[in-house]
Amino acid sequence: MPSEKKPKPEADDLPSPEQFCLAVPLYDPYRFDYESSGGFFSIEHFKGTLDFFCPECGSHSVFRLAREAKYQDTSHARNHIFSLPFVCSRDGSHRADFIFRAHKGVIQKIGQSPSLADIATPDLKKYRPVLGQERHRELVRGVGLATHGVGVGAFVYLRRVFEWLIDQARLAASAEPDWSDDAYIRARMEERITLLANYLPDFLVKNRGLYGILSVGVHTLTEKQCLDAFPAVKLAIELTLDDLLKAHERNEKLKAAAKALEALKGTVGKPEA
Ligand SMILES: [Zn+2]
Question: Is the pTM of this model over 0.70?
Fold first, then answer.
């Protein structure tokens, strides 16, 4: 066999500027190619806006570019570092900065403020009444770890929350006359989801194949397998929590209505003084 030249590694599909800033963990490397795809022009010359949780406003806000990409050192063209500075549209003193480094055909995000965890976890606060303090903390920790690219650790936390939610569905299902706990206990995660189909979001039931990974011991999974499975597990958790939250809010409203009616009865029944 003739000796072959080592093929040039192909360029990766770069994330969109929004994804690169708001979802990609620090230091994740992406190979780029100037000739075929114009390098990282779309990142460096991004002119759009970013929509995310502003920790200083305490709510979602639109961030616009304060000015064009700023370069730290233009003398080292081969070690190209630039930052994208954004300001919150509500208050110009609320800043967000994303720093990138391009070197030897690889671009990475090497810094950002606010952190991915600061951006990603406030959205989870609304689930606290449903999850309780401890589970809520586990969910936040899992999402926080994943934003830092820690796969196995993140997966352990998310899996605990997921399994707890499945167990909540099992509690509801066990009231059915033909429910069999034995069959449930013997079943793998994928089959458990089928058994609980009436108590779980459609998305989760339809895509139950994705959750086979939850039956695999965490010690046998790689960082990458965990990070790859993470979004699907997180989405299923959020969808399940959305349903539970809706039921919880409805219950709270019913309670308040019953209380208001009770109070009204008290006044309506009384003759005027
Ligand atoms: Zn703000």
Answer: no
